[in-house]
Design a protein that fits this description.
The complex is a heterodimer. By secondary structure, chain A is α+β, with helices and mostly antiparallel strands. Chain A has one domain (7-67). In chain A, 24% of the residues lie in helices and 28% in strands. In chain A, the strands form 2 sheets. Chain A has a 3-stranded antiparallel β-sheet. Chain A has a two-stranded antiparallel ribbon with strand order 4-5. Chain B is of the alpha+beta class. Chain B folds into 2 domains: 7-120, Rieske Iron-sulfur Protein; 132-334, Naphthalene 1,2-dioxygenase Alpha Subunit, Chain A, domain 1 (Alpha-Beta Complex), CATH 3.90.380.10. In chain B, 22% of the residues lie in helices and 34% in strands. In chain B, a hairpin with a 2-residue loop joins strand 17 and strand 18. Classes of the chains: A alpha+beta, B alpha+beta. At the A-B interface, strand 1 and helix 2 of A face strand 13 and helix 5 of B.
């Protein structure tokens, strides 16, 4: 019997504020919420021009560390 | 690994009376009884003279516990107050006493530093004696580590495979699972929408069609797992918060470590429908007990294998996310407790 599910991880700080959710999919991916890095940001920060990049909140990076 | 500075369930209210009761908790032998006024008492179950369990003795002169062997007597604080045949009591003749509180039809014990024992921190299991719920409780002795039971309750994907005659369903399930992790607790929420009800729910709720079913599993340390479970006819708004025309229950679990490989498993079941009908209450807990006996067989087989091959690795899957968060909380709390103990020992 196949079980298809995805897991949403919600991390809360000591002040109960939530980080953006992390999603684990049944096909093994980890999906994060973030903002696409603009062309101007790439230029200003000397970031790679062609790679897919997102900017994530520091709270989310803490959630990743605590939960994954 | 045991977290000592926490309240644990030591016994049910019915178990503790005027006949001393022996129970091992976290490898410590404990004797429990009630005073004439009805207050529960817990002492180290070992006479300081020649180690006989005090639980083999009897209560005399009210609340004094007399050792069967040579008649040494202990009061409710654990102090030896009489040595037959001599006037004086040797200095240091005392057994450990443990704070105890009675609540929710359970008798709770504090295994750590008594100065830290605050009854206000006892986990809320009010459904067990709330007039708005029908409820009862039972006990299982499990030959398995307490964390195996916590793991099992936090990952309910096993229902479809282990509990097919009661609370599991074999239908294809598309389940979205949400794991909410706060610093000191974990909540795993799972909805199955428009799916057949499991056999226990059909018996309890009389469902004839598909249901929307919820399982909200709440772990609080050290070892308490409270489940909010239920179902309504599909499409009536349960995921949006409208629980109409269905059933709602609480499955309440308190695991108390006996040793590293055995557990006292206290569990209860409460229901918010047909609350004054004891037959309903018994039917539901009978169904749950059938499922839990299936789980017990799993725990004991796991433990036996783990003892056989103690260094074998294990592989985690997505469904373990809630389990892993609970274990991380426990690891952190244990490290903090050990650090505080080391600091106190160094200071002494």
């Amino acid at each position: 019997m196949p079980l298809n599910f995805r897991v949403e991880l919600i991390w809360k700080d000591t002040d109960q504020r939530e980080a953006a959710s992390i999603f684990l999919t049944s096909d093994g991916r980890v999906i994060l919420q973030g903002r696409a890095v603009s062309a101007q940001e790439r230029k200003d920060l000397s970031l790679p021009a062609n790679a897919d990049m997102i900017s994530i909140d520091r709270k989310l990076s803490r959630a990743i560390k605590d939960m994954l | 690994m045991f977290l000592r500075n926490a309240w644990y369930v030591a016994a049910t209210d019915r178990e503790v009376g005027r006949t001393p009761l022996r129970r091992i908790i976290m490898n410590e032998p404990i004797v429990m009884y009630r005073t004439e006024a009805g207050a529960p008492v817990a002492l180290e179950d070992r006479c300081v003279h020649r180690h006989l369990p005090l639980s083999m003795g009897k209560l005399v002169d009210g609340d004094i516990l007399e050792c069967l062997y040579h008649g040494l007597c202990y009061d409710t604080t654990g102090a030896c107050v009489k040595v037959p045949g001599q006037q004086s009591v040797p200095p240091g003749a005392r057994v450990k006493s443990y704070p105890m509180v009675e609540r929710y039809h359970w008798v709770w014990i504090w295994m750590g530093d008594p100065a830290l024992a605050d009854p206000a921190t006892i986990t809320d299991f009010h459904w067990l004696d709330d007039p708005n719920w029908g409820a009862t409780h039972r006990y299982l002795h499990v030959k398995g580590n307490w964390q195996l039971v916590v793991d099992n309750l936090l990952d309910l994907t096993h229902l479809a495979f282990v509990h097919t005659t009661t609370i599991g369903t074999r239908a294809l399930v598309n389940a979205k699972v949400t794991v909410d992790r706060s610093p000191n607790d974990v909540r795993v929420t799972r909805w199955t929408i428009d799916a057949p009800a499991p056999p226990t729910f059909i018996k309890a709720g009389g469902f004839t069609g598909n249901v929307d079913r919820w399982q909200i599993v709440h772990f609080t340390p050290p070892s308490f797992v409270r489940l909010d479970v239920g179902a309504t006819p599909t499409g009536t708004g349960a995921p949006e918060g409208r629980r109409i025309g269905g059933i709602s229950m609480r499955n309440l679990n308190a695991m108390t470590p006996e040793t590293e490989t055995t557990t006292h498993y206290f569990y209860g079941q409460a229901h918010d429908f047909d609350i004054h009908n004891p037959k309903t209450t018994e039917m539901i807990i009978d169904q749950i007990t059938t499922a839990f006996l299936e789980d017990q067989a799993v725990f004991e087989a796991q433990q036996a294998n783990m003892l056989q091959v103690p260094d074998a690795p294990q592989v985690d899957i997505n469904a373990d996310t809630g389990v892993l968060q609970a274990r991380r909380i426990l690891d952190r709390l244990y490290a903090e407790e050990q650090a505080a103990l080391a600091q106190r020992t160094a200071a002494e």
